[in-house]
Specification:
By secondary structure, the chain is mainly β. The protein is built from 3 helices and 12 strands. The chain has helices at residues 29-33, 67-72, 95-98; strands spanning 6-15, 20-25, 38-39, 44-51, 57-61, 77-80, 102-105, 110-119, 124-129, 135-139, 147-148, 152-155. The relative contact order is 0.16. The protein folds into 2 domains: 6-84, Elongation Factor Tu (Ef-tu), domain 3 (Beta Barrel); 95-156, PRC-barrel domain (SH3 type barrels).
Length: 161
């Protein structure tokens, strides 16, 4: 897990005709993204970034010079090495640490895998995909998620639908 890159944002589409892109921001938002100039192992170099005043950002990358190239980046995750991030405090983690973890109930029943971590304003929510492809969500609280060990996320059976 320690060598797994951390996703800070994702390109949601082109902005304008000169190659700028719209970003969905994760973690600490724009302030967490600004210190980084290179993403995805050096494939993208940040030339300019600003807030879009809607919780996202508008960015320009040195390698992207027109709208067509910007549109081709749609869906691209902007990742950095963990070594480029400040150390985590006790009890802190990156959402990407939870992605694709096996999920079991506190009774030991396999439930599926973590497919997403969202935050709609109140708290973080873990989305879990069952083996049949259906999903359900659980709040990321100590009551609902009593623990995880880096390989398996344990969910209180009372929160399983």
């Amino acid at each position: 897990m320690q060598d797994k890159p951390v996703t800070l944002a994702a390109v949601t589409g082109a902005h304008g005709v000169t190659g700028e892109v719209r970003l969905k921001l994760f973690g600490e938002g724009l302030e967490g993204l600004k210190p980084h100039k290179s993403f995805n192992g050096g494939a993208l170099t940040l030339a300019k970034i600003r807030s879009d005043n809607k919780g996202g950002a508008i960015a320009r990358f040195a390698e992207v010079t027109d709208r067509t190239a910007a549109e081709q980046l749609r869906g691209t995750a902007l990742c950095v090495s963990r070594d480029d991030l400040p150390p985590l405090e006790a009890g802190e983690f990156y959402h990407s640490d939870l992605l694709d973890l096996a999920v079991v109930s506190d009774k030991g029943e396999p439930l599926g895998r973590v497919c997403a971590v969202e935050n709609f304003g109140a708290s973080d929510i873990v989305e879990i995909e069952k083996p049949d492809g259906k999903t359900f969500m659980v709040p990321l609280t100590e009551q609902a998620v009593p623990g995880w060990d880096g390989e398996t996320l344990t969910v209180n059976a009372d929160f399983v639908d």
